[in-house]
């Protein structure tokens, strides 16, 4: 993987960048839709391409449990398995072990846990996380971290930073595939000094990219902004910065201005399945009765397949009738909103007018159709 | 609507035909996928087009209850509502009133029933069935019939034929839209003399097409063949014959040979959602463990999108993980199987080799992957 900054913003830490991977290039800031189980829910690879998606994320924890990384490897790796011939990033599985699995016990070597699917016992540590991710074959992979709960005491978080640093080192030692770029994950909870400590230790190890983990776990927007602001300056400018699990469009704008290059979140696809649709004015709740005979599209200015073909009335009908097509059409719209939004941010950066774009973005969201 | 026979089979009653509607033409024998609630489950209009679907069926009962025919009418009719710019046939709602609704009471005027959605009371008779179908705006519409249960006594079925004939006459009187073709529905249960009586009465009224109702209700294959064989000869050769709710590929071949031109059934899409996939050799059950690491497509010889891009292993994974994409990819394959199969039948008819095709078809199904 190669990363380069194409243009920096004069008013903020934001930058336009480019990442080149064995499966193609994309520009940053970028949003990666989440394909948890080897499928971005309700969408095919063609749908993703048509929506303008250039890179996706898949979850190591889920694919390790089902169908198993050896199956994916035997089938030619994740790209071929899911017929997605563009960049993929896999997380380390750490976050899901803490949030989904049961009966965890953490040692210096890794985590023993029970599968949320069948209760079977598993052990994953830094070595296993590398082996699994090598088998899956993503272009960008993550070191195995300990993600502290929120809220957490200073002492707990300090130890979690220590473990994360130790495991990061072991991941680097154990990583085998030359064509996979390994990212270190900065932890440290909401404590700026621990974030600094974590960032500095990882930077000393020289990862190919750096992620901010342990955020979007329940903290408020201002706290998150503060943590990002106090962490990014300790990361090298020539490496990409990835904020894991974030987020809402406004959270993304916040973080872009603070120097973040990569994002992932289940929000657009999950909201789509719940019938909450993104518009520049804010969320639109499609089940609302006032859309029952509304002939207009979700968003007049949107060029997605859904808005080009279907009325709010039809989309409401599909949603109320629990038709499977509802989830796909809504997901197409929401992901198009995200890819279009990120491309607007990149264009604003390219043309030196990001500050202006962000101001209009924040102002535009005051008139939400369904506040 | 115009229908013409292009070529007749010398060995059977089968014929190649053409139907021209206000929304386009298609050849017969044809299979119509079922878009119950204004959506062929899991598929968009583009998917249907790509799969080669040329005409679909929608259910009057479901659309009447939700979103309501007035809503569909206000939104420009069913074609525009669901963004399907090709022929549509709507059923009369009769079959669903008997199979889905609760607390029915049948009079000379029609049926009073409770909605299966919210228990609200409704009345639908021949007049209402015409009004609703006019509002929906399909190219082909059905007269309102009384579909006898199976098994049913001779006396019950005789009365059901009487009512169906009476209502058919009222439908003809009440039908208002010139650009909609009205089909009469032959009833008569499994009694050839009642089928003959029903057919003759309807033919006297001169409908634009004739449907065989009250089949595929639990009778065995031989009984169904006998009923079709004893009914079709009483229908005019210059009108299309539509066998409602049928069926399996072998049932379709049976009926084509007996002179049937049109078919509809939920089988391909419902089976898709249950993970049962059609192949020329017979059904393949994708959840079977032996497909867990099978790199091949569902069917080597199939040219559908699913077979071109995805392995049995991936499709099994999606199915086991209950991924929404599973339902769509499986539905694309099964409907492609049906449209391809019908097109093979038409080509065999065109080239005067239907008997040979049917023999190979029946023989080919002896080696089902998952018997």
Q: From the alpha-carbon coordinates, what is the Rg of chain A to the nearest angstrom?
A: 20 Å
3D shape of chain A: globular
Main pleated-sheet profile of chain A = 8 strands, parallel
Q: Into which percent range does the helicity of residues of chain A fall?
A: 40-55%
Uncertain stretches of 5 or more adjacent residues of chain A:
none
Number of helices of chain A: 15
Most extensive protein-chain contact, per-chain counts? A-B, 38 and 38 residues
Q: Structural class of the helix and strand makeup of chain A?
A: alpha/beta
Q: Give the termini distance of chain A in whole angstroms.
A: 42 Å
Strand content of chain A: 15-25%
Give the strand line-up of the largest sheet of chain A: 4-14-13-12-11-10-6-5
Task: Give the assembly state of these chains.
Answer: homodimer
Count of distinct strands of chain A: 16
Quote the average pLDDT of chain A.
96
Structure characterization notes:
Two copies of one chain form a homodimer. Chain A is built from 15 helices and 16 strands. In chain A, helix 7 links the parallel strand 10 and strand 11. The mean pLDDT of chain A is 96. By secondary structure, chain A is an alpha/beta fold. The A-B interface holds A 37-39, 41-46, 66-67, 71, 74-76, 81-83, 292-293, 295, 305, 309-311, 313-314, 316-318, 320-321, 323-325, 327-329 and B 37-39, 41-46, 66-67, 71, 74-76, 81-83, 292-293, 295, 305, 309-311, 313-314, 316-318, 320-321, 323-325, 327-329.
């Amino acid at each position: 993987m190669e990363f380069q900054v194409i243009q920096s913003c004069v008013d903020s830490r934001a930058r336009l960048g480019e990442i080149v991977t064995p499966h193609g290039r994309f520009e940053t800031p970028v949003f990666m839709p989440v394909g948890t189980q080897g499928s971005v829910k309700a969408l095919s690879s063609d749908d993703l391409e048509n929506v303008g998606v250039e890179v996706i994320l898949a979850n190591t924890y889920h694919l390790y449990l089902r169908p198993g990384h050896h199956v994916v490897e035997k089938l030619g790796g994740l790209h071929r398995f899911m017929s997605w011939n563009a960049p993929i990033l896999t997380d380390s599985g750490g976050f899901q072990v803490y949030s989904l699995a049961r009966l965890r016990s953490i040692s210096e070597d890794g985590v023993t846990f029970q599968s949320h699917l069948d209760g079977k016992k598993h052990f994953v540590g830094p070595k296993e996380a590398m082996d699994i991710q090598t088998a899956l074959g993503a272009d960008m992979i993550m070191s195995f971290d300990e993600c502290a709960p929120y809220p957490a005491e200073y002492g707990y978080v300090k130890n979690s930073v220590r473990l994360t640093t130790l495991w990061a080192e072991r991941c680097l030692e154990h990583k085998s595939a030359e064509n996979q770029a390994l990212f270190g994950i900065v932890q440290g909870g909401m404590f700026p000094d621990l974030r600094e400590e974590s960032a500095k230790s990882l930077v000393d190890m020289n990862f190919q990219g750096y992620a901010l983990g342990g955020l979007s776990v329940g903290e408020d927007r201002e706290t998150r902004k503060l943590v990002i602001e106090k962490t990014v300056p300790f990361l090298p400018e020539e490496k990409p910065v990835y904020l894991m699990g974030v987020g809402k469009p406004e959270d993304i704008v916040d973080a872009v201005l603070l120097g973040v290059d990569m994002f992932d979140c289940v929000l657009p696809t999950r909201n789509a399945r719940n019938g909450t649709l993104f518009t520049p004015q804010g969320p639109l709740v499609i089940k609302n009765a006032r859309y029952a005979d509304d002939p207009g599209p979700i968003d007049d200015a949107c060029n997605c397949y859904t808005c080009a073909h279907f009325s709010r009335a039809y989309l409401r009908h599909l949603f109320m009738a629990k038709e499977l097509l509802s989830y796909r059409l809504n997901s197409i719209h929401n992901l198009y909103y995200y890819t279009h939004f990120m491309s607007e941010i990149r264009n604003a950066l390219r043309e030196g007018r990001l500050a202006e774009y962000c101001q209009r973005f924040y102002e535009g969201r005051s008139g939400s159709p369904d506040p």
